[in-house]
């Protein structure tokens, strides 16, 4: 459905400095699957989401790699061609600040009309209206929302409306960047249910779900990739990545989650010291070396590839799987907070 091979993109700042926010990222997502992407702020998750669409505009620039959607390689395509034939139809994007993505002075039906006419200029207003009503009913949204302004909608309804506008042309792949952020628990549940229903009904074929909320990601995604400083440091199934992380950063990330359950008040959380490297001048070796308690001298000079442990499971570290497990067992007691 979607395959990415060694994708590298960078930002060029006003001072002509290169910031490599996505560095040789490869991924593959099959039909009917949801891929989760986790990592701290600034690690490149949102830049990766933008890069996957193959539509680049300054300051973001394509450097190398391939993006293949349903057998079609879209790298090297002209921006106008990508916008007309790929965006919205093959791959759609829900931006991180989705609730602020709509012009407050226009009605929802006007946004839908703009999207459809960009790809189907022959459609009449009545055809657009009929299509929008049918879609909203299918997604469990009241049809009267079509005639409202964004400022008349609640946060949860506005978020669900943005999702509906994004999928109006039934794309094959949907990229959701923090779709449940800034929402209360009830609204989050409605948004997640809407996304899952679209997947289960085949309305969208595959989804990439980006979020900071790891417990949520575990319940939504089939597979999870962990990003750090522009690189993928671990990937595997949701169960593997959450319950049995291999990379030291993934291990620290999973151990930093606070679970408000009875009997966990005395549980000690893991803190990751230090700060990520400056991507204007990333270190030559492992990018996590300065924050890793298992670091060795060679970690700071050796380029660390992504080692495949088994089919679909991989991590980026010079230590073997056996060495990592031995280090974790020696230094930590108890189970993951997900299991306690």
UniProtKB/TrEMBL annotation:
Q: Which GO terms describe its biological process?
A: peptide transport
- InterPro entries named in the record: AAA+_ATPase, ABC_transporter-like_ATP-bd, Oligopep_ABC_C, P-loop_NTPase
Pfam families, from UniProt? ABC_tran, oligo_HPY
Which molecular function term from Gene Ontology is one that the record holds? ATP hydrolysis activity
Occurrences of domain ABC transporter (ranges): 2-254
Superkingdom field: Bacteria
Q: Which UniProt keywords apply?
A: ATP-binding, Nucleotide-binding, Transport
Name assigned to this protein: Oligopeptide/dipeptide ABC transporter, ATPase subunit
Q: What is the originating organism of this protein?
A: Chloroflexus aurantiacus (strain ATCC 29366 / DSM 635 / J-10-fl)
């Amino acid at each position: 459905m979607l395959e990415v091979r060694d994708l590298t993109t960078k930002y060029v700042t006003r001072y002509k400095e290169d910031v490599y926010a996505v560095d040789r990222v490869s991924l593959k997502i099959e039909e009917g699957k949801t891929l989760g992407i986790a990592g701290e702020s600034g690690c490149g998750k949102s830049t990766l989401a933008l890069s996957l669409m193959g539509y680049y505009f300054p300051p973001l620039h394509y450097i190398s790699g391939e993006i293949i959607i349903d057998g079609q390689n879209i790298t090297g395509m002209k921006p106008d061609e990508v916008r007309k034939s790929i965006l919205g139809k093959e791959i759609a994007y829900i931006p991180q600040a989705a609730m602020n993505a709509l012009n407050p002075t226009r009605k929802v039906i006007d946004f839908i009309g703009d999207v459809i006419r960009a790809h189907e200029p022959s459609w009449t207003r009545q055809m657009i209206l009929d299509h929008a009503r049918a879609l909203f009913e299918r997604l469990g949204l009241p049809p009267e929302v079509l005639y409202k302004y964004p400022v008349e909608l609640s946060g949860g309804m506005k978020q669900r409306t943005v999702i509906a506008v994004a999928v109006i042309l039934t794309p094959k792949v949907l990229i959701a960047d923090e779709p449940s952020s800034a929402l209360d628990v009830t609204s989050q549940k409605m948004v997640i249910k809407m996304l899952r229903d679209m997947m289960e009904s085949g309305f969208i074929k595959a989804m990439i779900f980006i979020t900071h909320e790891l417990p949520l990601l575990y319940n939504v995604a089939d597979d999870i990739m962990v990003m750090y400083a522009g690189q993928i440091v671990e990937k595997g199934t949701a169960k593997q990545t959450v319950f049995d992380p291999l990379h030291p950063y993934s291990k620290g990330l999973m151990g930093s989650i606070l679970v408000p359950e009875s009997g966990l008040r005395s549980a000690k959380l893991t803190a990751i010291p230090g700060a990520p490297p400056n991507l204007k001048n990333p270190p030559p070796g492992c990018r996590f070396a300065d924050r890793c308690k298992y670091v060795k001298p060679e970690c700071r000079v050796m380029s660390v590839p992504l080692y495949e442990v088994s089919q679909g499971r991989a991590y980026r570290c010079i230590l073997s799987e056996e060495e990592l497990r031995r280090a974790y067992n020696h230094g930590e007691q108890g189970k993951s907070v997900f299991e306690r």
